[in-house]
Write a structure and sequence with these properties.
Elements (H helix, E strand, L loop, with lengths): L7 H8 L1 E2 L2 E2 L7 E2 H8 L3 H9 L6 E2 L5 E3 L3 H13 L4 H12 L9 H29 L2
Antiparallel strand pairs: 1-2, 3-5, 4-5
């Protein structure tokens, strides 16, 4: 199985450019609205990721959430993993493997095992859907 590649958002933040705009406040934490705007993900989804333990946030004295700048890359990785069909509980396990800067970790054994099991689950579900489709077509 090829390694999972998640890094477009990380590459953008490392260069200090996001969506074609220079990021002059690279060291400043992001509030939830800023993170939502930078990632194209709703505030509601970001809160959900936080509740699920996928996206760490600190609280300011005013109660506002503050996210580190690397949250942009983290949200991109979360979205990519969710788009693969992984449930949030598996995303939580896989996320450290895909966010690690060391390319050898991208092929970590846990990741391969988790994704292999998920592929088997998806294949079984696809077979169930194909069977249901054939039965409907015969009506």
């Amino acid at each position: 199985m090829p390694p999972v590649v998640v890094g477009v958002a990380r590459e953008a933040t490392v260069r200090g450019v996001i969506n074609g705009k220079v990021n002059v406040k690279a060291a400043t934490p992001l509030r939830i609205g800023e993170l939502a705007q930078l990632t194209g993900v709703s505030r509601r989804a970001l809160r959900h990721y936080e509740r699920q333990g996928l996206l760490p946030a600190r609280r300011g004295d005013n109660g506002y959430r503050h996210f580190d700048r690397d949250a942009v890359a983290r949200v991109g990785a979360i979205r990519e993993l969710l788009a693969m069909g992984l449930p949030t509980r598996l995303v939580r396990e896989v996320l450290p493997c895909v966010l690690d800067a060391d390319p050898a970790r991208l092929r970590c054994p846990e990741l391969r095992s988790i994704l292999h099991d998920e592929l088997a689950r998806l294949d079984a579900r696809a077979a169930e859907i194909d069977d249901a489709r054939r039965r409907i077509e015969t009506l």
